[in-house]
Amino acid sequence: MVGGRSSKVSKNGIRGKSTSSTTKGWIKRSTYKEIGELLGKRAQQKFSNAMKKGIVDAEGMNGIKILSGKGIKVGKSYYKYEVKVKGDFGAYRALGNYDKSSGHYIFDVFEKIHK
Length: 115
Fold this sequence. Notes:
By secondary structure, the chain is α+β, with helices and mostly antiparallel strands. It has two helices and nine strands. The longest helix is centred in the middle third of the chain and has 13 residues. The protein is globular.
C-alpha cells in the first residue's frame, strides 16, 4: 500500500505522484507483488516512496532516474526509466517507460541490476 494524500491504489497498479505535480508513476500490481515476495514489505514501501519523489539526478538519490542511451534491455524491450533505492535494496531496480496515453511512468519490470 502506498501512503500520502496524492497516492491511491488503482486496479492497474500502485500510483504515486511526486511533489512536483508533473511526475506521476505507477508500479504495476504484479511488479509490486514481486518486490514484496522477493524482498519484503519494507522494500515495497521504499520503492513506492522513491517513485513518488519523481525524477532525480543520476547519482546519489532515491527516485525515478532517466537512463542514458537506449536504456536497459530486458528481453526484447528497452526501459528508459528506473526507480532507484539506495541502501539495502540498491542492487535492484523497478524498470519502466513513459506512457503518453496515460501521462504516467509505468514500472512493470523488477530486476537485480548490480551484484
